[in-house]
Design goal:
- It comes from Pyrococcus horikoshii (strain ATCC 700860 / DSM 12428 / JCM 9974 / NBRC 100139 / OT-3).
- S-adenosyl-L-methionine binds at residues 48-49, 78, 106-109.
- The chain has 136 residues and is mainly beta.
- The protein has helices at residues 53-56, 119-122, and strands spanning 12-16, 20-24, 40-46, 60-61, 72-73, 86-92, 98-100, 110-116.
- The protein folds into two domains: 14-47 and 85-119; 52-82, no CATH class.
- It has a six-stranded antiparallel beta sheet with strand order 6-3-8-1-2-7, with no helix packed on it. Strands 4-5 form a two-stranded antiparallel ribbon.
- It starts with 11 loop residues before the first strand and ends in a 14-residue tail after the last helix.
Length: 136
């Protein structure tokens, strides 16, 4: 598999201190204008610690890392091992920082992009119940 390189510039980083939040870099803070407390957003992250040529070649995994689960294509899982290690999460905005309760990312994970999550297009399901038969 041959990869063509291109550059992605982080707009901020995940920070895990007393609270978990996204630290937006000063040169991108103007891009937060218009976001309000309580808005839902999508985050696009770069799993930088899963970014090696070997890990990018993994295209099938056992979901939840459990070998009892059948091998499944990474696009149908939440595995951090992907050809391009991105993930998307939904969070709320509170105050002048983007605070989040929890995220499946490490302190220092680069944030590549933030997009508004308009209810009419992408309404989150508050009471979602998984029908998955996979073992955790």
């Amino acid at each position: 598999m041959k990869f063509e390189a291109f550059k992605i510039v982080p707009v901020g980083y995940i920070r895990k201190e007393k609270n978990v939040f996204i630290e937006i870099l000063p040169e991108f803070r103007e891009g937060m204008e218009g976001l309000r407390e309580g808005d839902w957003i999508k985050l696009i992250l770069w799993f930088h610690k899963s970014d090696t040529p070997e890990l990018r070649r993994i295209l099938k995994v056992h979901p939840h890392g459990n070998p009892e689960n059948p091998l499944t294509g990474v696009f149908a899982t939440r595995s951090p091992f992907r050809p391009n290690p991105y993930t998307v999460k939904v969070h709320k905005i509170e105050g002048n920082r983007i605070y989040i309760d929890w995220i499946d990312a490490e302190d220092g994970t680069p944030v590549s992009d933030i997009k508004i999550f308009p209810e009419r297009y992408d309404c989150p399901k508050e009471n979602y119940q998984s029908t998955s038969r996979l073992k955790s």
